[in-house]
Structure formats: C-alpha cells, structure tokens
C-alpha cells in the first residue's frame, strides 16, 4: 500500500450554469482531493472555457490540472494556449489527442498534432519562457496485454517529457493487475506515476451511459448489475468506488486515482472517505 496515494477529481463542466456553480463544485471537491482536472472538451460540443476555469480556480487557491486537447487546433493555437496556461501559473497539464470533429485530413488550416508532438511542444515552450517543473500528463489505455507486449508508446511519451499518466475510465481491477506489471517491468512507473480514472456512479443508467459512450471505458457487467439491484444507487456507487480505490492502492505501480461523477459532486468526497485510503 502507498502512503502517498494521490486523489484528484474532474469538474463536471456539463453541470455548470454560472461561475458560482463552478466555484461551489470546486470547493466541494477540494475538501478531499489534491488537484482538480479541468476538461478542454476533448469531445465535440460546447463546454466551459478551460483556461478561464483554471484562472478562476487559481484565484481561489485551488490547484487546477488543465487538460489541453489537440482537437480542432492548429500549432499556433496550441502554442498560445500553452503560453497562456504558463502565464496564469498553471503547474499541471494533461495532454490528450481529442476525438475527431469531422476535420478533413486535407485541411490546410488544421494540423492534426499527435500527443507526443504536443508533449514536445509544451516542453519547448516551457524552455523558451525559462520556466520549468511543469507536470505534464498523458493518457494510457488499460487492456489485457499479450505476453510479449511492451509499452513502447508510453515510453516514447515519457522520453518526450510526460511525467504522469492517467488511464481511461477503469473499474476493472483484474485487467489492471495484468496491465500494471508490464509498466512496472518496463520502468514506465519510474518516470511517470500512474493515475487510474474512476467514476462514482449515481445510478445504473449513468453506468450504462458511460460504458456505451465514453471511449475505452472498462465497466464490468457485475458493476452495472450491482447498481441495477441497489436499493440506494448513490450509496452503492460510493461503496463500489471506495472498494476499488482500496484495491487499486494494493496494486504495484498505481499511484492514485482521478475521480469523476455525473451525479452530485458530494459523492466524490464521500467515496474518498469511505475508501479508508486517505489518512488526513
């Protein structure tokens, strides 16, 4: 078990109607987590501006982990966004590829930047501005690896400058127990802590939606069945997340979790407390 097991949480930007809503949700989450992830709207659709959200959090002494997506952005736009984040005082960024929004491969205006190229860009801009110590994150996909699988892509990203890794949404401890030894043996975990993405489910309907619509999500049918049979689904969702956090804390190489919920934000502190992992 890890004494320095970390906790972070995603702001539910879809539930925000005002700045007051944003700060209220952030204050609830900050009671039990070390940092708050601010989504850049990696999927197509309208979303609360990420840089503005990060600035509001910083002004209220809450540490943002700013997500920067390559989707729909050319290189100059990405560089400006990186410069803006550094100017605001952001100390952690999570870099993601983002889902396609129908941009043509032949477009002369939009450049499809790979995640590795974006990591290199962040480190270059950081050096040009004579700033350092920025935490740069990237995404990993948990799966059942073949015996000869080697995490070449993740090693490439850590060599480019990534120093923490977040997984897709994962409720599958069995797959993690097969996947994580590969990262440990390849020394990926020496260079970048592994953070598992986990949700506190408010209902069976939410569990099914996440399973069907969130790309790569791993939600076993047993979890959905537990939610379907629960007398109090929110309490059951808290318990499931708490049990998994306690189990993740025993798997070598996992350094923390990032929690999200489509339900009330209070479910996240409840799950952290119920896990028994955080010792305040």
Written description of the protein model:
The protein is α/β, with parallel strands linked by helices and 280 residues long. The chain has a domain at 6-197: TIM Barrel, CATH 3.20.20.220. It has helices at residues 19-30, 50-59, 75-88, 115-128, 152-160, 173-185, 188-191, 204-213, 221-229, 233-248, 267-275, and strands at 6-10, 35-38, 64-69, 92-96, 135-140, 164-169, 194-199, 254-260. The protein has an eight-stranded parallel beta barrel, surrounded by six helices. The protein is globular. The two termini are 16 Å apart. The model is unreliable at 100-109 (pLDDT under 50).
Keywords:
280 residues; alpha/beta; TIM Barrel; 8-stranded parallel barrel; 11 helices; 43% helix; globular
- Principal-axis shape: globular
- Assembly of the depicted chains: single chain
Q: Helices and strands, in N-to-C order?
A: EHEHEHEHEHEHHEHHHEH
Percent helix range: 40-55%
How many helical stretches?
Answer: 11
Q: DSSP strand (E) fraction?
A: 15-25%
Structural class estimated from helices and strands = alpha/beta
How would you sum up the major sheet? 8 strands, parallel, barrel
What is the CATH C level class of the domain at 6-197, in words?
Alpha Beta
Work out the radius of gyration: 18 Å
Q: What would the CATH topology of the domain at 6-197 be?
A: TIM Barrel
